[in-house]
Write a structure and sequence with these properties.
Length: 181
């Protein structure tokens, strides 16, 4: 099933990879998302994104859903195919990049799943959808310089370090990895 956005683009409600399914969030996902986003290890490189209250995650999920409703794609909940467990969130959403429009690629996973290649698999699936549905759009993953794992994910899925688009984030300098030639 596809959810068309106001801008004509649409991501399948469920995007499948070999081991994962990424789907539009629902309000009932908030408690499981809280278990991931409240882990200090997950927020180590972005301490301002640490959430510890269910109300805050419910508001976050509503923002994710608002992007889906407006654009037909956005941040998704990521589930293991074999277990059905919610193990992370990943997605693309519109953002401002160097005064223009671009797609921000993000991925966050439960530390219990780190090292399994889930972030790479989810990011690769999302970029495949972007290449098919929005081929001319700039994709940027903003990554803190010390976050070597996230940098490896970005390069494995074909993004390149793009110092011209580095920016100051809430928690310090963020390096840009993009699909720009």
């Amino acid at each position: 099933m596809v959810s068309p956005g106001r801008d004509g683009s649409s991501q399948p409600d469920v995007l499948r990879t070999p081991r994962l399914s990424l789907r539009r969030p629902v309000p009932a996902d908030a408690a499981a998302v809280l278990q991931i986003l409240s882990d200090p290890a997950v927020a180590r490189h972005h301490p301002s994104e640490l959430v510890t209250e269910l109300d805050d995650v419910e508001a976050l999920v509503r923002r994710w859903l608002g992007h889906w409703e407006q654009h037909g794609f956005g941040n998704a909940c990521v589930f293991e195919e074999g277990t059905g467990l919610l193990v992370g969130n990943a997605g693309v959403r519109w953002t401002t990049v160097d005064g223009g429009r671009g797609l921000n690629l993000m991925y966050r996973f439960s530390p219990a799943t780190w090292g399994r290649g889930y972030a790479t698999e989810a990011a690769d699936g999302l970029l495949g959808w972007v290449r098919a549905a929005l081929p001319d759009e700039l994709v940027v993953a903003r990554i803190r310089p010390a976050n070597l794992s996230s940098q490896r994910v970005a390069t494995k899925v074909g993004l390149r370090r793009d110092p011209d688009l580095d920016a100051q984030g809430d928690d310090g300098v963020e390096w840009a990895f993009t699909n720009r030639s």
